[in-house]
């Protein structure tokens, strides 16, 4: 069945540009616990020092568990089999970088994973790229890129870089697991140089609504209540406000949806685990009863199934672009400086004629 799932997912996917050639790489460890390899092994069994150890309104996610999930996904026999969504969004982020007609000497990829953005960029656009992720196993298995890269193991919630360092910061499908998103945006703004740009993508609130509804209905039927199995997401109406408060200007926020067809609910959950996207919210329910899972699979098929027997999974993506202020940037005209009223737009032809005379 897993092979059938991959066949369904592979059909109809657009071809993306892939980087070629060989890059040079280095790796710095700024997040892992002390003690070398022994410390890294211990991290798999216990949270690192300083990590959040309890739930709360301000810390909805277990960051240590998320690191463990991503590390596990990266060391599977064929991790690329579940990378299709990250590769697609990484390519779309790269397209937005190409839309800016300049060369970026130094860029940062925040939550880079195995390098899903870097493979689509060119050295004519980005001269050097720093890749940051909490999962050291993902950084050890980065895909090849023609851009020189350096890998840094660090937490996206606390960036270990000086102010005004990067010309470009990109992030793809990582920030939705950050506990303090306003702080993360402020830190991104801080490490950007003046006139630098941030281009990011994160999952939106309608992501996996089919899975969420099926699991909730099945639990209500079989267990008399339900608990969250899909993590909470930020509303698109909040993103612009958060970016503005962090200091960004000339903002652009837009949404898109990617729908992937699977043989059934179990394949959806299998691939989410392979992506490192399993739920890590503190209030998650650790186990699901077998009868509940079977009921959820039947509900999923009945409510959302396609005519060919497959089921869709919807991923809503928020894309955001924000710039750090610089004197050279274009600014809106002062209020009241207009010479033509909106009420005169219907007479625009006449106004243009008088101007020519």
Question: What does this protein look like?
Answer:
The chain has a single domain (21-32, 60-330), classed as Rossmann fold (3-Layer(aba) Sandwich). Helices cover 34% and strands 18% of the residues. The protein has helices at residues 2-10, 36-43, 63-74, 84-98, 136-140, 181-191, 209-223, 236-245, 265-275, 290-304, 348-356; strands at residues 27-29, 107-110, 129-133, 149-153, 166-172, 192-203, 249-262, 311-323. The chain has an eight-stranded mixed sheet with strand order 1-4-3-2-5-6-8-7, with helices on both faces. α6 links the parallel β5 and β6 (192-203). The longest helix has 15 residues, at 84-98. It is globular. The chain starts with a helix and ends with a helix. 38% of the residues are buried. Mean pLDDT is 80; it is low at 1-46 and 48-53.
Quick recap of the structure?
With 357 residues, the protein is α/β, with parallel strands linked by helices. It has helices at 2-10, 36-43, 63-74, 84-98, 136-140, 181-191, 209-223, 236-245, 265-275, 290-304, 348-356, and strands spanning 27-29, 107-110, 129-133, 149-153, 166-172, 192-203, 249-262, 311-323. One of its GO terms (molecular function) is S-adenosylmethionine-dependent methyltransferase activity.
């Amino acid at each position: 069945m897993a092979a059938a799932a991959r066949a369904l997912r592979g059909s109809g996917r657009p071809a993306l540009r892939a980087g070629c050639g060989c890059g040079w790489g280095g790796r710095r460890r700024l997040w892992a616990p002390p003690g070398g390899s022994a410390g890294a092994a211990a991290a798999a069994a216990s949270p690192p020092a300083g990590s959040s150890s309890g739930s709360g309104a301000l810390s909805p996610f277990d960051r240590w568990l998320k690191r463990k999930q991503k590390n596990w996904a990266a060391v599977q026999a064929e991790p690329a089999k579940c990378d299709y969504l990250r590769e697609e969004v990484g390519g779309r982020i790269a397209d937005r970088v190409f839309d800016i007609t300049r060369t970026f000497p130094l860029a940062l990829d925040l939550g880079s994973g195995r390098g899903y953005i870097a493979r689509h960029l060119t050295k004519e656009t980005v001269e050097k790229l720093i890749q940051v992720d909490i999962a050291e196993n993902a950084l050890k298995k980065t895909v090849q890129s023609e851009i020189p890269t350096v890998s840094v193991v660090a937490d996206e919630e606390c960036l270990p870089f000086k102010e005004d360092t990067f010309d470009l910061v990109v992030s793809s499908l990582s920030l939705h697991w950050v506990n303090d998103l306003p702080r993360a945006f402020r830190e991104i703004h801080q490490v950007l140089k003046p006139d630098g740009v941030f281009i990011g993508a994160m999952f939106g609130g309608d992501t996996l609504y089919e899975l969420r509804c099926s699991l909730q209905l099945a639990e209500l039927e079989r267990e008399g209540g339900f608990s969250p199995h899909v993590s909470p997401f930020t509303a698109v109406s909040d993103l612009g406000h958060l970016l503005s408060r962090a200091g960004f200007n000339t903002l652009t926020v837009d949404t898109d949806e990617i729908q992937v067809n699977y043989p059934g609910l179990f394949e959806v959950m299998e691939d989410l685990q392979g992506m490192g996207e399993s739920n890590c919210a503190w209030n998650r329910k650790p186990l699901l009863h077998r009868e509940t899972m079977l009921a959820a699979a039947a509900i999923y098929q009945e409510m959302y199934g396609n005519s060919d027997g497959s089921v869709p999974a919807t991923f809503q993506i928020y894309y955001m672009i924000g710039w750090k202020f610089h004197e050279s940037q274009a600014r809106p005209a002062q209020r009241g400086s207009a010479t033509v009223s909106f009420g005169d737009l219907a007479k625009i032809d006449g106004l243009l004629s008088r101007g020519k005379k």
